[in-house]
UniProtKB/TrEMBL annotation:
Membrane topology: Multi-pass membrane protein
Main subcellular location: membrane
Stretches for region Disordered: 1-25
Location of the ABC transmembrane type-1 domain: 83-259
Family: Belongs to the binding-protein-dependent transport system permease family.
Protein name per the record: ABC transporter permease subunit
UniProt source species: Streptomyces chisholmiae
Keywords: Cell membrane, Membrane, Transmembrane, Transmembrane helix, Transport
PANTHER family: ALIPHATIC SULFONATES TRANSPORT PERMEASE PROTEIN SSUC-RELATED, ALKANE SULFONATE ABC TRANSPORTER-RELATED, MEMBRANE SUBUNIT
InterPro entries according to UniProt: MetI-like, MetI-like_sf
A Pfam family it matches: BPD_transp_1
Chain ranges passing through the membrane: 31-48, 86-106, 118-139, 145-164
Locations listed in the record: Cell membrane
Length: 269
């Protein structure tokens, strides 16, 4: 009798050499798509500039103004001042939102008390906070920063609260079984589960923070990138206004990509 060896059955879901994704090809595809989008955007911009009969600056004028901005030492001082305000607002809003979010996530009483406040806070337009704070505290840097912290805190708190409520309660039972202290529970059980939500809230808050800081500076401050943009608008220099906004946007985007995206990497607790 001849023994029949079992044949190996291939898993249809397992990627083969032909179907496995090529990282280099995917990178080239994303680069080509990005360059195409930029080229179409520049071409559309130039067409609109021609059709507007000079009211909208052309690409060449904006590039020339961008070079002037990059060689202006005063712009870097304004950019550092705006960045300091962004980091201050971001830090305060994330810390307050984290405390409120954890409290509403673990306590039904805190959730019943603070949920209407968070819902109303998310519904109010951000410029309203700036106007109301100016009416109460006057026109100053402090009033603007307080307004932005109040505007961004509900966003962080809402994200963190949802993550805390969606945690694995079986791990809570295990923590009680092993009699973990509050500090160990917060570090090894709770923080490990809500970390992705906190990172996501941090990135979203950063994107809102720098935009609102620029808006606040245009309304209340004599310095900063927002004040410089408003000054260029007053003197009818749209190419310089666009150049300042463009350079600062690129800087903020680089900070997000180089610094904040690294927080997405999982870390042991």
């Amino acid at each position: 009798m001849t023994a029949v060896l079992p044949t190996q059955v291939e898993d249809p879901t397992r990627p083969t050499a032909e179907t496995a994704p090529n990282p280099r090809g995917a990178w080239r595809g994303r680069l080509a798509s990005g360059l195409t989008a930029v080229a179409l955007g520049v071409a559309g911009w130039q067409v609109v500039s021609v059709l507007s009969d000079g009211w909208m600056p052309g690409v060449g004028e904006v590039l020339t103004a961008t070079g002037e901005v990059l060689t202006d030492a005063g712009f870097y001082g304004d950019a550092l001042l705006s960045l300091r305000r962004v980091l201050l607002v971001l830090t305060c809003a994330v810390l307050l939102g984290l405390l409120v979010g954890v409290a509403t996530g673990v306590s039904d009483r805190a959730e019943a008390f603070l949920r209407p406040v968070l819902v109303i806070g998310l519904a109010i337009p951000d410029p309203v906070y700036i106007i109301l704070t100016i009416l109460i505290m006057g026109i100053s840097e402090t009033s603007g920063l307080v307004a932005l912290v109040i505007a961004i805190t509900p966003l962080v708190a809402n994200v963190v609260s949802g993550s805390v409520r969606a945690r694995d309660h079986a791990l809570d039972e295990m923590a009680r079984t092993y009699r973990l202290g509050r500090r160990d529970y917060a570090r090894h059980v709770l923080a490990a589960q809500i970390r992705p939500a906190v990172v996501g809230a941090l990135r979203t808050s950063f994107a809102f923070s720098w935009k609102l800081v620029v808006l606040m500076e245009t309304m209340t401050q004599p310095d900063g990138v927002g004040a410089r943009i408003y000054e260029e608008f007053r003197f009818l220099r749209p190419e310089n206004m666009i150049a300042c906004a463009l350079v600062f946007t690129v800087v903020m985007r680089l900070i997000e990509v180089l610094a904040l995206r690294r927080l997405d990497r999982p870390r042991p607790f």
